[in-house]
UniProtKB/TrEMBL annotation:
GO terms for molecular function: energy transducer activity. Residues 181-275, 286-379 form the TonB C-terminal domain. Keywords: Cell inner membrane, Cell membrane, Membrane, Protein transport, Signal, Transmembrane, Transmembrane helix, Transport. Belongs to the TonB family. It is a single-pass membrane protein. This is TonB family protein. One of its GO terms (biological process) is transmembrane transport.
Length: 381
């Protein structure tokens, strides 16, 4: 079975960023008069990585996208813990999220769908495979009024659903006396962009550069500077050059900003897969030829992995009743994260084979999650 999936959403260039659906926020019951919920921008602090009792130092860290959350005063966040291994190339694999019950009375529920995909893009020193690895991300929530400008800029540029509080957030990214954020200004005459395809970007990662500038009376950007970046020096240089090439209506403005972002367009392929036959029991009663399924539900990527163009696979075992219904569906192996196995398991559980006189047992099948060639995750902006 091979999953070739077209990416389901398209980003918009420039300040519009990209839309990303957030999980709904359940409101916990409480006693007494109603209490208004509070909005927070949530960042994910990176914890220490340990493997087999020793510390593992990453050589590349990819931060998860900040998210928006709403909750009651006093709500607490829950750490996101994971177990994994590191292969000989320094790639984290067999990533499993560790679920732990919370002792907090009020929990701030957040969308964490990008945490594991972002971590899958990390890299450690090559040459030594390691097992028994663990680490955690600690969500840190801050109201717009007190959140750091760095966090607000990252959140504003990253994929997220626009909210009523966006105006307050946008104002905090600019000087108090700016005249460059009113509706309809500045009026763009020419918006220049970098040649994104010439800017290197490792698979599974993204970069952004936030520029700041004024506009002179002729509509030319002046005093152009880099106000925020996550470290892609080529994008930084090309972003500044693009702003200098841009032109606006002939009206002086100050305190303007504009971000550019770059996503990797190269899919991160799944690691080498062991032979399917190695998982098949000697007493299996299942034909070796390709199965002509009577029904296969749509194959969907695990949350967040498709947006970062991270491919994967799963090997699934199952039985089939004479009337074609699958049963005893179990994940035998999955990479780079257990989430791929969970999605594959759902597909096989819902799939149906043609009716037969005997059914089958001990079947083993491969489910591949592959990004459709030529389809990008988002338009750079």
């Amino acid at each position: 079975m091979k999953g070739i999936l077209a990416l389901p959403w398209i980003g918009a260039a420039g300040l519009a960023g990209a839309a990303l659906a957030q999980n709904g926020i359940p409101v916990a019951p409480h006693a007494g008069p109603p209490v208004s919920s509070t909005g927070f921008v949530v960042d994910f602090e990176v914890g220490q990585v340990s493997c087999d009792g020793g510390v593992a130092v990453p050589v590349r860290v990819e931060r998860p996208f900040p998210v928006w959350a709403e909750g009651m005063p006093g709500s607490r966040t829950q750490p996101i813990e994971m177990a994994f291994r590191i292969d000989a190339e320094g790639r984290p694999l067999s990533i499993v999220r560790q679920q732990r019950p919370s002792a907090a009375v009020r929990v701030l529920y957040i969308s964490s769908e990008d945490v594991l995909p972002a971590f899958a893009a990390w890299r450690f020193a090559a040459g030594q495979a390691r097992t028994g690895c663990r680490m955690r991300f600690d969500p840190v929530a801050a109201p717009i009024a007190t959140a750091s400008p760095t966090l607000l800029r990252r959140y504003y540029v990253s994929p997220h659903q626009r909210r009523p509080q966006e105006r307050q957030l946008f104002a905090r990214l600019h000087p108090a006396d700016t005249n460059c954020i009113e509706a309809g200004v500045p009026q763009v005459r020419l918006r220049a962009y970098p040649a994104f395809e010439d800017i290197p970007q490792p698979s599974g990662t993204w970069s952004y550069s936030m520029t700041g500038f004024d506009i002179d009376a002729s509509g030319k950007p002046v005093r152009v500077q880099l106000t925020e970046s996550n470290g892609n020096a080529v994008l930084d240089r090309e972003a500044l050059a693009a702003i200098r090439r841009s032109r606006f209506a002939p009206e002086a403005r100050h305190g303007c900003t504009y971000p550019y972002y770059r996503y990797s367009t190269t899919a991160m392929t799944g690691p080498a897969m062991p032979p399917k036959a190695s998982f098949k029991a000697a007493d299996a009663r299942c034909p070796d030829e390709t199965i002509d399924w009577a029904f296969l539900p749509p194959l969907r990527f695990p949350q967040g992995f498709e947006r970062r163009r991270i491919e994967g696979w799963a090997i699934v075992g199952y039985d089939v009743a004479p009337w074609g219904v699958t049963g005893n569906v179990r994940v035998l192996a999955a990479e780079p994260a257990a989430a791929f196995g969970e999605q594959a398991q759902r597909v096989i559980q819902q799939a149906r084979q043609p009716a037969s006189s005997t059914g089958a047992s001990g079947c083993v099948d491969v489910v591949r999650f592959v990004i459709a060639e030529g389809r990008g995750p988002i338009n750079e902006g």
